[in-house]
C-alpha cells in the first residue's frame, strides 16, 4: 500500500480534490464555473498554510526527539493557536476576494461552505502537522480516500435520483468531509494530550509567554 502511504501522498492528495472533476462533469456550465472559481479562491488557505507547515516541521520533529512530553504538548498548543489566527486572517482575505469575483446568492453560499471546509484549522488547529509529529499520520491517507469515496457516492446518487447535480450540495458534502477528517485527527490528538484549536488555552500545562 505504498501508493497511499503518508510518505507517498499522491492518491490521498488527489482524493482531497475529488470534488473538482465531479463539478466539471456533473454541474451545468455556469454552476460549474462558479464552483471552480469558489474552489480556487478557497484553496488560498491550504496553499498559504503549506509552507508554514514545512517551516515548522523541523522544529516539531526536533522537539519530539529532545524535549519532554509536556514541553512538546506546549509547543503543539502554540502551533495550534498560531494556525487558528493565520487561518482566520486567510478566511477574511478569501471573503474579500470573493466579493470581487463572485456574483449571485448561490455562488456566495457555495464559497461559504467551501471556505468552512478549508478553514478546518480555525476549529481544530494544525492537525496534519501534529499527527505526523506524534506518529499518527498513517491514518490520514485512509481518511482522505474514504472521504472521497463517500463524497462521490453521495453526489452521484443525488445526480441519478434528482437530476442535474447541485453545486451547493457538492460544496456542503466537500466541507463535511474536510471537517470530519480534521475532527477525527483532532480527537486522536487529544489522546496524546494535545487540545484542538483555541481549546489549547484551557490546557493546564500551557504557559504562553
UniProtKB/TrEMBL annotation:
List where the protein spans the membrane.
9-27, 33-54, 75-98, 110-130, 142-161, 167-189
Q: Which UniProt keywords apply?
A: Membrane, Transmembrane, Transmembrane helix
Top-level taxon: Bacteria
Name of the protein this chain belongs to: Uncharacterized protein
Organism the protein comes from: Sulfitobacter albidus
